[in-house]
Specification:
The protein is an alpha+beta fold and 196 residues long. It has two domains: 1-31; 32-193, Jelly Rolls (Sandwich). The chain is built from four helices and eleven strands. The strands form two sheets. It has a seven-stranded antiparallel β-sheet, with helices on both faces. Strands 1-2-3-11 form a four-stranded antiparallel β-sheet, covered by helices on one side. Strand 2 (45-55) and strand 3 (61-65) form a beta hairpin. It is globular, with a radius of gyration of 17 Å.
Length: 196
């Protein structure tokens, strides 16, 4: 029944725009529980985590976020999820940026992104098509060898359901791969584009 309601909501979203379209988006998000408990595996241990529903900038997507650890900063060009408590200066960046690229398909954008990232991450792996935590292309790179604080980048490029793409860029450091990296991927399992 929920799947049918979501399908009907998406159909209605295609028909309406503007104020009416935004009202329909609000109805769509009301189909999701405002919060829920998920079980995730962090560093080899099962962990029950309460997550809250968040809406992206301009109502382009919804996803659940662990607000006890992370905060979402919504921007004009991108949204950034980062730790609530800033990390000490000697730690590399820990963030997950979500950006929508209009009118460029994932197939095309992944080629551009691969060339760009190889400047910073010469041993970049991918692109590889994956179905978990989202369905799309994946790129992965580690800079500066295998030290605990070696910067890591993990990029997913997925369809926005129209003619464009969502680019999701995770940044963390090698020692945080099973912590922040795993938590970011759990959040992405709940990522749902909202078509307008």
């Amino acid at each position: 029944m929920v799947v049918t309601l979501i399908g009907v909501s998406l159909f209605v979203l295609l028909i309406f725009s503007g104020e009416r379209g935004l009202a329909v988006v609000k109805q769509f998000t009301s189909l999701f529980a405002p919060e829920k408990v998920i079980v995730q595996e962090i560093e080899g241990e099962k962990e029950r985590t309460e997550v809250q529903l968040n809406e992206g900038s301009h109502a382009e997507y919804v996803m659940y976020i662990d607000e006890s650890r992370y905060t979402m900063k919504r921007g004009e060009d991108a949204d950034v999820i980062t730790t609530i408590e800033p990390l000490p200066d000697h730690y590399p960046e820990v963030s997950m940026e979500i950006r929508q690229i209009d009118s460029v398909s994932p197939d095309q954008y992944v080629l551009d992104m691969t060339e760009e990232l190889k400047q910073e991450f010469p041993d970049l792996q991918g692109p590889e098509f994956v179905t978990e935590p989202v369905e799309g292309y994946q790129l992965h790179g580690i800079s500066s060898g295998q030290d605990w604080d070696s910067p890591v980048i993990h990029v997913y490029i997925i369809s926005n359901g129209k003619s464009g793409s969502f680019v999701i860029t995770q940044r963390y450091f090698l020692e945080a791969a099973e912590g922040h990296g795993a938590r970011f991927n759990e959040m992405l399992k709940e990522f749902q584009p909202v078509e307008d």
